[in-house]
């Protein structure tokens, strides 16, 4: 070394003495080249910065167009009589009274989760709102129904209707006017999404069909509030929070117009067509504007395109502005409002800041909905909903014994058998059974003091987690399983059981009939297995709740339990009560794991239902309403929620477009473990005779679609082509596709025949190719050696795509691929029709 060593902190000279002067001489000689190069070098970081900024700016560039004025409700279709009565009542109200009915009030006399303002002089008592789409929550004297995901897994529209009918009657007997459901958003974009279990399926078509039946059933008794409108796909950062004094907004769901129409808006359109009276705007932002002040969503899509005649209520504390939310189409703020209280809307009308017709429309929509669903004949508001269940109160038994068989049937039909080898199931009068797992028995306490103050969903949460819930802060280490049979998920989608039938209870009574010896261990993850066991039944669960997204898709301790039992028992039957997607690859290929059932969330009859399937009294007839991957990473960027990553304005770009769940797997050619629509029975089926009888014509390019356009109000009014749900022709039939299905096994079993279409469209691109999509299903019970005909009726909507340029649904010309069969990947019949 010719000089002293440099300490780490000293900077070394760029170039040494002699080299420096040579360098300067070189530069002088070639300054024409050197100067521009130097400028370039100096500018590079700046250019980089600009490029980075542009990229970020591009990512932040999602904006929601404004759509004003808000379309006025006018009594479309069968709403006309209700509007006549509403106009008469609201016409007599002062502006202050109108203002009063648009927001929630503090009510200490009932246990309703929300009570709206009244106009007593005019005979309007206000409305009691209560959760949820899965049963009356947090009160006594009610049944716990199967959750949305369970009904989704049943693929049974009739059952969805029946469930809602019985449930709606319970809401009514409790003095509830608005049932806060059904849920068709989230749709399940995120595999770990905390509220996926509340909706039916990770598919807009299935959600739309089952959701529409639920609206019809509920609204025989009360008003249904369809939710959450719209593109509400994650719990993480669902509400704004203050972080060290800095406000972090809710996550913005950034999506394009076509994805909005063909995926997220799709089921809502079916529910509005079915007559839904209330819609709840969601917590998230849509293209950077809060859903509850998003004029494109509420004025443009819901009230304009879908011609929604009911009223929009905010999700609880989901209102973030006064006039912008009113102008954007919000009609009622819940549970109270700091923006609209103290006559603020009236004052805004007085000062000219708010158009008076908007306030009149808000009140008219609310009162019209009240009349439309006979709430003027309802029981006194919240009469069966005591504010404090721990104090003495009148017990209102809202249950109807006529609902019992339907409740059990709902519980049975949402079970999906995915593996059954070596004739493991059904059980055949076993001599010895071993039962394991914390989920086999019901939780150790079930008392009002725990149940009601914490409203069921909070059971199992530590203090830290409860604090998180209260402050909207992310919940740390949320539970992945629940001790005790899991019958429902957590949060406002939970429901309160009258009792819990656990698997162990139900199997005990079978053991009595069959003389079976039972051994059990519900605690250990490494239990002792009796070698004489005919079968080992392992019950585990996978929990999920509102407020947080799930920490993973499989609980490692539960997997260890399964592997331990399987290592000692050559017929290990695994039952998972899963509130969402549950991976099984930790043990599924183990030959000792002979049968696996996704038991979902069956409600109070969980045990009875699973026992009837295990013993073969009922055949398993559920099919997966989502995709089970082989590994978490197969879900790609749709595994977990978008994170704020230090941003005050968290962004979530839905770059996959319409390709969520099975469409994403098809698009990326990823083989799932169990595909959407998959499920086994105790029989086998053969498909034949595919026939397509479709009479659709491609929409000519000069067709003017007569739906609401921006800038005009009420242009739907005199248009008979428009009704509930928008353009009525979309719901008209364009023909049927039929097939025959034969039961080739030896027992009666229900098959769910499914129709998928590959719709031709110029919009398909290589990074997000259009895939086949579900467009029909039929569940049929078929006797052995018998053949049933299945018919899929296609609506115009089912063969249409949303054309962004024309802002219209169009039937594209070209060849439509037809796939009929047992699941999205198992379609023995294929064909096509050309439009
Ligand atoms: C949920 C809604 C629910 C409301 C009232 C909100 O936190 O997002 O789904 O209806 O609370 O309980």
TrEMBL record:
Any one Gene Ontology BP term: cellulose catabolic process
GO terms for cellular component: extracellular region
A family per Pfam: Glyco_hydro_3_C
Predominant subcellular localization, coarse grouping: secreted
Reactions catalysed according to its record: Hydrolysis of terminal, non-reducing beta-D-glucosyl residues with release of beta-D-glucose
Matching PROSITE patterns: GLYCOSYL_HYDROL_F3 (PS00775)
EC number of the protein: 3.2.1.21
Protein name per UniProt: beta-glucosidase
Species assigned in the record: Friedmanniomyces endolithicus
């Amino acid at each position: 070394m010719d000089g002293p060593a440099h300490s780490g902190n000293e900077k070394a000279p760029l170039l040494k003495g002699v080299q420096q002067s040579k360098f300067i001489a070189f530069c002088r000689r070639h300054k024409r080249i050197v100067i521009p190069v130097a400028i370039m070098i100096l500018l590079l970081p700046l250019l980089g910065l600009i490029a980075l900024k542009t990229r970020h700016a591009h990512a932040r560039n999602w904006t929601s167009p404004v759509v004003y004025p808000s379309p006025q409700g006018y009594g479309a279709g069968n709403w006309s009589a209700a509007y006549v009565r509403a106009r008469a009542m609201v016409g007599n109200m002062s502006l202050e009274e109108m203002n009063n009915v648009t927001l929630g009030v503090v009510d200490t006399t009932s246990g309703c989760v929300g009570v709206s303002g009244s106009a007593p002089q005019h005979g309007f008592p206000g409305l009691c709102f209560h959760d949820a789409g899965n049963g009356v929550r947090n009160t006594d004297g009610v049944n716990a129904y199967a959750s949305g995901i369970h009904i989704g897994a049943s693929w049974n529209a009739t059952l969805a209707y029946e469930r809602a009918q019985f449930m709606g009657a319970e809401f009514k007997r409790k003095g509830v006017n608005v049932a806060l459901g059904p849920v068709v958003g989230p749709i399940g974009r995120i595999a770990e999404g905390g509220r996926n279990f509340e909706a039916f399926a990770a598919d807009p078509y299935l959600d739309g069909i089952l959701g529409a039946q639920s609206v019809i059933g509920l609204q025989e008794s009360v008003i249904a509030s369809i939710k959450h409108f719209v593109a509400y796909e994650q719990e993480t950062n669902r509400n704004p929070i203050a972080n060290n004094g800095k406000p972090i907004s809710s996550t913005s769901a950034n999506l394009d117009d076509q994805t909005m129409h063909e995926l997220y808006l799709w089921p809502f359109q079916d529910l509005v067509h079915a007559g839904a009276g209330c819609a709840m705007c969601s917590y998230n932002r849509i293209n950077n504007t809060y859903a509850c002040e998003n004029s494109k969503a509420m004025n443009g899509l819901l009230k304009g395109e879908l011609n929604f005649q009911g009223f929009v209520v905010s999700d609880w504390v989901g209102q973030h502005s006064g006039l912008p939310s009113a102008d954007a189409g919000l009609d009622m703020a819940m549970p109270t409002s700091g923006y609209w209280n103290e006559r603020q809307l009236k004052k805004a009308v007085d000062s000219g800041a708010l158009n008076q017709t908007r306030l009149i429309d808000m009140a008219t929509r609310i009162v019209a909905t009240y009349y439309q669903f006979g709430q003027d004949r309802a029981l006194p508001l919240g009469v069966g909903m005591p504010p404090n269940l721990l104090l003495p109160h009148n017990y209102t038994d809202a249950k109807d014994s006529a609902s019992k068989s339907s409740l059990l049937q709902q519980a049975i039909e949402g079970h999906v058998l995915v593996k059954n080898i070596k004739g493991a199931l059904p059980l055949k009068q076993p001599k010895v059974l071993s039962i394991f797992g914390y989920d086999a028995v019901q939780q150790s306490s079930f008392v009002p003091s725990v149940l009601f103050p914490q409203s069921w969903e909070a059971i199992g949460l530590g203090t830290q987690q409860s604090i998180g819930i209260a402050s909207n802060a992310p919940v740390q280490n949320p539970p992945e399983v629940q001790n005790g049979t899991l019958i429902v998920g957590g949060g406002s989608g939970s429901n309160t059981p009258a009792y819990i039938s656990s698997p162990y209870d139900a199997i005990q009574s079978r053991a009595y009939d069959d003389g079976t010896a039972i051994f059990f261990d519900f605690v250990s993850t490494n239990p002792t297995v009796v070698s004489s066991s005919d079968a080992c039944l392992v019950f585990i669960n996978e929990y999920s709740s509102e407020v947080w997204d799930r920490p993973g898709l499989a609980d490692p301790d539960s997997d260890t339990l399964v592997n331990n039992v399987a290592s000692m028992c050559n017929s290990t039957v695994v039952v998972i009560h899963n509130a969402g997607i549950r991976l099984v690859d930790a043990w599924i290929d183990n030959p000792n794991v002979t049968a696996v059932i996704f038991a979902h969330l069956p409600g109070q009859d969980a045990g009875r239902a699973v026992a009837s399937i295990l013993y073969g009294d009922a055949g398993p007839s559920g099919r997966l309403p989502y995709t089970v991957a082989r590994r978490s990473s197969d879900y790609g960027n749709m595994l977990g929620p978008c994170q704020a990553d230090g941003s005050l304005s968290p962004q979530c770009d839905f770059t996959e477009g319409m390709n969520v769940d099975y469409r994403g797997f098809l698009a990326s050619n990823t083989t799932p473990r169990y595909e959407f629509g998959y499920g086994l029975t105790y029989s086998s089926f053969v498909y034949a005779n595919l026939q397509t009888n479709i009479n659709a014509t491609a929409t000519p390019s000069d067709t003017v679609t007569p739906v609401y356009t921006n800038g005009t109000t009420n242009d739907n009014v005199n248009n008979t082509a428009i009704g509930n749900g928008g353009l009525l022709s979309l719901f008209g039939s364009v023909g049927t596709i039929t097939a025959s299905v034969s039961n080739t096994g030896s027992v009666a079993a229900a098959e769910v025949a499914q129709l998928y279409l590959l719709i031709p469209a110029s919009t398909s691109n290589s990074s997000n190719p259009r895939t086949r999509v579900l467009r029909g299903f039929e569940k049929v019970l078929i006797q052995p050696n018998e053949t049933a005909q299945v018919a899929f009726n296609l609506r115009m909507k089912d063969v249409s795509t949303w054309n962004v340029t024309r802002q219209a649904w169009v039937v594209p010309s070209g060849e439509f691929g037809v796939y009929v069969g047992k699941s999205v990947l198992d379609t023995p019949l294929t064909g096509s029709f050309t439009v």
